[in-house]
Amino acid sequence: MARHFFSLLMAAAGGAALIAAGTNSWIAVAVMTLAVLPSLAARAPVATQAPAAHQAPADVDPLREVKAAFTGFDSPVYILDLKADVLYQNPSARHIFGPIEVGQHISVKVRMPAVADMIRDALASGRNGQVEFAATVPSESVYLVRMVRAEPAESAGPFYVLIFRDISEARRIDRMRSDFVANASHELRTPLASLRGFIETLLGPARNDAKAQERFLNIMLEQVTRMSRLVDDLMSLSRLEIKARLAPGDEVDLVPLLGSVADALSPLAGDLGVEIRLVLPQEPVLVMGDRDELTQVFENLIENACKYGQEGKIVDVKLEAALKGQAAQVSVIDYGPGIPEEHVPRLTERFYRANVESSRSKKGTGLGLAIVKHILTRHRARLVIKSELGKGSTFSVRF
Description:
This protein is an alpha+beta fold and 399 residues long. The chain contains 11 helices and 12 strands. It has helices spanning 2-20, 25-46, 64-71, 91-97, 113-125, 168-203, 210-242, 254-272, 291-308, 356-361, 368-378; strands at 77-80, 86-89, 129-135, 141-150, 159-166, 251-253, 275-279, 286-288, 314-320, 329-334, 382-388, 392-398. A 5-stranded antiparallel sheet has the order 2-1-5-4-3, sandwiched between helices. It is globular and about 90 Å long. The relative contact order is 0.07.
């Protein structure tokens, strides 16, 4: 009893020290839990050494307190025996990866090669293991997976705890920081240099030149507007990535939505000499989605078709209702110059441009299709791009 109390006291003190030091609370909770596993698991068989009249029932689970400790964890947790057969799966693991029967091998449910190799190495060596892996279904997620060996009393036997920690948010922030340093700073450098040059000219040679001042101020306004669009798109991407795994729960009728998008873009199309033609079914076409985000998707696709397919003079927007075995689909078709084949797979990357000068001259930020991709990922939809040089491009959204 004294040793059990001492273990609990040391675990609580260690966890409190980690939290006081600013350590991630998840790590502190895990440390405290794993530290007391041996003492928790050892408590169950103690009663078996008492006189027969006071023995615990034979069907008492020696790991019941260990399992109870992990039931409330937000992270997926499995308890495995020395053969990697499942002894317990907590509710988070059941929700994220699906149910698995007690006694089945963990590979029945966890099939990621990197994780499987880590489990095999940990079992062979008897040591703890750790690996990071990325999952793409149902949405892009990154997990840090740890396998920790626990040594309770002999009656319970040693076992392993397999813990999945979702670090998607941390990796997303790292990626955004890298993108900003590598790309956004480059995009901002040109307009900032232009602004500095114009300001120096206005303060110097053009100090008393009214015509030059008007011309330079108009150019400066264009550069500031460009930077504003870039920052707005970066903020939009950030908001979308935060809720990327939260699928929308509302029904949206695509028929009136596409009609309103086409009406809103008709002045732009008229200025470019392009006609937007809608091909819509008579009956409603309902999909699960967020109306504002889907509006942003189709505004982006149709506007791009008008700008970059301007030579074709026509942009067709076709909506096909869901049929047997097929999902609803919206196709935006232009008849412009098309996109070289080698560029198509990379069009949804941030800041990627098939033609840099053309994109900038049309006031593009290089983030529009990246935003489209993130919205469609949240909607569990796909963007399919087909293009042929000299014949135009087709951007299809499949729900």
